[in-house]
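If you are new to this repository, start here. Below is one unmodified record pulled from the training split, so you can see the exact layout before writing a loader.
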Amino acid sequence: MTNTPFPDRIVQVREAHTAILPDPGRVAAFADDLLGLLFPHFSSAAAATTRDDVQHRLDELNDALCALLRPQQASMPARCTDAADQVFADLPEIYRKLWLDARAMHEGDPASESIDEVIACYPGFFAIYVYRLAHSLHVHGVPVLPRLFAEYAHTRTGIDIHPAARIGERFSIDHGTGVVVGGTSEIGDSVRLYQGVSLGALSVRKELAGVRRHPTIEDNVVIYSNATILGGQTTIGHDSVIGGNVWLTESVAPFSIVQHRSDVRVRSKPVADHTIDFVI
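And here is the target side for that same chain:
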């Protein structure tokens, strides 16, 4: 390698990867095009207004997904056409769950005026849409492409959901920036996350790649902003509330309330206290 001229080395690497990785731009375009078909909030009113129009567009998008899969054919358990068909067979169930997600976000947010507003404007809804699509690809054994979809949503929303995570129905992400959901996380039904929540691992050693590393969140749990929950043995019991800025590495029972208490001090006289003064 050291004797290979630098431009030639770049050419060698590019040639080795042209048949392996899908183009990220085409990945993003596919995600947007499918979203525009599923929800008219993202496409013109004149598009796909009849059953035949919708079926024709579904067939086109199926072909587009197969084209994205084709560079990875050698590392897939099924033919790209079969894998694309499997994902599109999942679309009715994905669509059903997305409407439930949107309804849960609307019902849980006093600032939301309609489900349409959630679908059209909320970054959490977009991130959940991409997750559900990417998770289907992951379940059907597609390598790399699910992560490319996830990273597209991460770039647009600041929400990072691993495609391998298992997430139930009526999932809500409010605001969302900084949310991280690790790949072995399990999230039940009717769970709400606020911005900055991390469902992470206690250890990032490579030899633990095949071990459950991320927490389980049972049904009807609310996790407020900047809470961090770590560890594959950590379970948050159903119907619990986890307050903002909480750090958890152990399980809590159902119906728990966990909160972080701030240290509040009232000064006896107006003298500056520089103990926590800082400049950025």
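Two things worth knowing about this chain: The chain has a mean pLDDT of 91. DSSP finds seven helices and 14 strands in the chain.
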